Amino acid sequence: MLDRRISRRRLLTSSALAAGGAVAVPLLGACDASSDNSSGDGKTVTLTVMYKNNELTKEHIADFEAKNAGIKISFIEYDDTRLNAMLASNEPPDFVRGAAVGSASGNAQGLATELDPYLDKSSVLKRENLLPVNDSFRWDGKRIGQGPYYGLAKDWSQDATLWYNRALFEEAKIQPLSTTEPISYDELLEIGKKLTKKSGGKTQVYGFGVEWAWNLWAPISMMILQQGGQLYNADLTETDMTTPQALRALKWYVDFGQAGVGPTSLDPAPDGADLSLFLAKRMAITQDGYWYGGNFVSESDEIKNNVAMAPAPVMGDKRISPTYVGWGAYIPAKAKHKDEAWKLMEYFMAGPPGDERAKSGWGMPALQSQLSLMPQELPYQKQAYATQQAELQYAGQLPDSPYIGAAGAWNPVLDKHLQRAIKNEITVEAAGKAITDEINKLLRQGKDQIG
Asked: Where does the record locate the signal sequence feature (predicted)?
């Protein structure tokens, strides 16, 4: 938990192969997340696991092995390049870190094991206990959100929510944001302008940060959905970023960049993230999920007594507040030890690691039963908990085409053409057309590769 400041969220933009096609697997009896289990035949099974060592720790591994005498874990630090090589050689790990949002591509390629047969028999992980974030790991052969599960989330946040510093609002004589009612994106931009302070051509205080360097695709997709628009056509093979809904979202980002209220790729944050600016009282509002509150526990009372969380802003009439990623785990389709990997899945999601994550405040748990473990000791934690619980009902799914990566493929294209529009080299309409052409080319290439 100790090294999650900033670096945890930077992982949003890393690419990950998560989820794949249906595979029939033999099942052992599902283990209890806290009980002793052996391999059944007296032999020790070595389970190859690829994860982040600050999320699945040495202590977790030792505890799991002690409770499952027939299983030993061979741990590999998560690495995209190595994972891709292992998948390509048909020698994948048995248990792998993966993202829910963006899993459609891996699903379409048949890279993961169907988990429904395991869920059917498990006394630890039940469908009715899975929060909606897990639906992005579902795949029916054509789209996410329905059909079998091919992965499970470990924790998540509705990443468009807002954190702000009341003290900076007071200094600017501006009414603080509501912690119960969403603000519109247009209003938010105007408030951001009023909170921004500049001197000598330099920005002293940014009014509003959107974590530009981390993700453009997800918030822009959310804006389109909130207006009742769609990012893709019916079969997920094409996009159209020249629709009124898409152009409104793109124009908002261009206006944001031209107003200079927050860091962009043309005016980047010193370390590529909002946190240091926010903690230094040089940023009044930052757009980050519930997990962001984990940063403040060890900060000064000045910070803890002034931070607050607000609902995700809206653009249009449809209130949607999705997760941008939803990290979790899956079992590769060609894993050698699927039953043992499922035991680790139960332990990691519903056992001590899951409880620890929920209590830490570094994101919400992905199980309904763990929500009550979220921290409420400090005043700001109580307020954030209340805001987050109300926000849950608006958790929607971001669109996910199997023919293109999510943020990793979209972000460079969006950033390139938004920069051009911000600098008045092209119009917003021309930017929308250029984005459409480039993304559709990538979609065609992806479809050709998958078939």
From this structure: 1-24
